[in-house]
Amino acid sequence: MDKNTINKLTHLSKLSIPDSDIDELTSNLENILELISEIDAAPTNGMEPMAHPLDFNQPLREDKSIKDINRSENQNDTSKTKDGYYIVPRIID
Amino acid sequence: MWETVIGLEIHVQLSTESKLFSSASTDFGAEQNTQASVIDLAMPGVLPVLNKNAVDMAIKFGLAVDAKIARKSIFARKNYFYPDLPKGYQISQYELPIVYDGKLEINVDGSSKCVGITRAHLEEDAGKSIHDLYEDESAIDLNRAGTPLIEIVSEPDMRSAEEAVTYLKKIHSIVRSLGISDGNMQEGSFRCDANVSLRKPGDEFGIRAEIKNINSFKFVESAINYEVIRQQELLETGEPVVQETRLYDPKKDETRPMRSKEEANDYRYFPDPDLLPVEISEKKIDEIKLTLPELPDAKKNRYKKDYGLKDDDAEILSLNSDLSDFFEGSMKDTKSEAQMVSNFILSELVGLCNKHNMDISNVAIKPSNVSQLMNYVSEGKISSKQAKDILNDLWAGSSNIDDIIKSKNIEQVSDADILSKEAQKILEKHPKEVQDYKNGKIKLMGFFVGQIMKEMKGKANPKILNQILNKLLGEL
User: Fold this and answer.
1) Are B456 and B422 contacting, i.e. CB atoms less than 8 angstroms apart?
2) In contact, B48 and B154? CB cutoff 8 Å
3) Residue B230 carries which DSSP code?
4) Of A67, B44, B196, B366, which has the fewest CB atoms closer than 10 Å, so is most exposed?
5) B54 and B26 in contact (C-beta within 8 Å)?
6) What is the 8-class DSSP label of residue B362?
7) Which of B92, B42, B39, B19 minimizes the C-alpha distance to B271?
8) Which among A57, A71, A89 has the least Cβ separation from residue B276?
């Protein structure tokens, strides 16, 4: 775990970490990785990867639309809306 | 020489009533954010529940392209941040897609080739970001968020823009025939990404550029052709092609790199713990097989066999279900030859559609109009040139063919007695020409026809008039 990896992680997760916290964060993450790495010891050769711990089938829903959407209620906790749109700082792609 | 290698990823919006994981409506054009439910908005504590119809539609598509249907498939989270993706991940499929290993035959320049379909997976669409509405701000409409898509991924089997467009058109006609998508490219129901690279024949694949979100057949062709020339120029001057995502700009007819896409493409896929694996039984697959409609290839063969259409025409009609519906509607009450009806539709009617930039499904002209016109042509009541004129009148708003014929006074005279009398008059008036004709100047037939037509204001049925003139001149 080096500074480049930390930078990549903060970029991917859109977090900004003060420089002063990076050393501590690095050592914490290393500890977590070490703990998790014990899983590598489990013999998994030839085992089918498990997608879900529950051995059930995904239930399916009939294709019916329900009109129960209250836009103003949904937008109550939003920091900025205009004319029913969510407003964000300008994104240019 | 360079060989072009193309693979396509096609996003097809499924025409379900509700979204992939929520009961919000998928109708296009609703007021912003009135069709974004708490699930689409990623409110805390909500759970996605899979739409049965979307699964059935994906299976239908798989069966139509000879693919395998996964007995067990799983959903995965594709993680990235973008304002039109409220969850911070898109629910998609990664390791076990619902459809895999299919193929499609395409015909280009008279030879057929098989394009492999690697996979088709179910996923949800994102919302829409609008950048030109407010100054310095972007507006987000999440109505589209959660709309079901299938993403159809081809093998890199295509070798020209023409092959790519042919493949794309065929997929388009299949999803429309199956009724699983309206295929509307303007509204974004059918979008395409093209992966393009060049190599020396026999070499390994070259480095590819991905051109994103192309939304018309014409643009796919132009974008690929532009990209081929761009990469060729790079390679020939020894510059490397960079693996990147590019956008096609139809106004400038060029592709350019996208500025700020996740450079690492590090989507950190993992199975979505909110969704269980989807198991599909053999019985279910068999049931869906029974509901499959006639597909373009079968339709094309039927048109050739039952109607005797030319290969090219059968192909064009079968690949566009609006056109083939129109053709079959026109054949219903007709005594005319199918090839003639097909010619009329494909040249005259489609010509008008192209000229006015309209779709045949939206025009006021009905298949019954074409059938009536073609019957009149077959009966000799009107000429094919006149049928074309009447079609123009119908297009301009007239609705009754018989009224048009009356008002234009263009009904053809096919009555043999009347035509004989007129012909005799003309022949008597031109004894010298008759003598020359009998001496071998058979080109004068055109002169006689012309004189009679002039006399009858063009209303003589040319076929019958010719027969009568031949008979009269033979007897003289």
Assistant:
1) yes
2) no
3) H
4) B44
5) no
6) G
7) B92
8) A57
User: What whole-number distance in Å separates Cα of residue B184 and Cα of residue B12?
Assistant: 9
ipTM for the predicted complex comes to 0.82
DSSP-derived 3-state class of residue B208: coil
Inter-chain CB proximity B278 and A51 less than 8 Å? no
Q: Which residues of B touch A54 (CB under 8 A)?
A: 276
- Verify whether the Cβ–Cβ distance B138 to A57 is below 8 Å: no
Which residues in chain A (51-70) have CB-CB distances under 8 A to chain B? 51-52, 54, 56-69
- Quick one: CA torsion of B317, B66, B108, B188, rounded to 10 degrees? 70
CB of B256 within 8 Å of any CB in chain A?
Answer: no
Percentage of chain B exceeding pLDDT 90:
67
Which pLDDT belongs to residue B27? Answer: 93
User: Which of A53, A56, A51, A47 shows the shortest CA–CA distance to B73?
Assistant: A51
pLDDT digits (tens, 9 = 90+) for B177-224: 999 999 999 889 999 999 999 999 999 999 999 999 898 899 999 999
CA dihedral A13, A16, A20, A21 (to 10 degrees): -30
Taking the C-alpha atoms of residue B49 and residue B55, their distance in angstroms, rounded to an integer, is 12
Helical residues (DSSP H) of B73-216, grouped into ranges: 161-178
The pTM of the full predicted model, rounded to 2 decimals, is: 0.81
What integer pLDDT is reported at residue B145 of this predicted model? 97
Q: Which domains occur in chain B, in start order?
A: 3-287 (no CATH), 296-408 (no CATH), 416-475 (1.10.10.410)
Helix-then-strand count for chain B, H and E: 16, 17
Q: Which two tokens stand for residue B285?
A: 């697959």
- Cα(B286)–Cα(B283) distance, integer angstroms: 5
Distance from C-alpha of B120 to C-alpha of B10, rounded to nearest angstrom: 9
* Candidates B18, B43, B49; nearest CB to A59: B49
> pLDDT tens digits, residue range B80-126?
888 999 999 999 999 999 999 999 999 998 889 999 999 999 999 99
Burial of B186 (0-12, 13-18, 19+ CB in 10 A): exposed
Q: Which residues pair with B212 in a beta bridge?
A: B247
Per-residue pLDDT averaged across B415-425, rounded? 87
Closest Cα to residue B99, out of B64, B62, B128, B127? Answer: B62
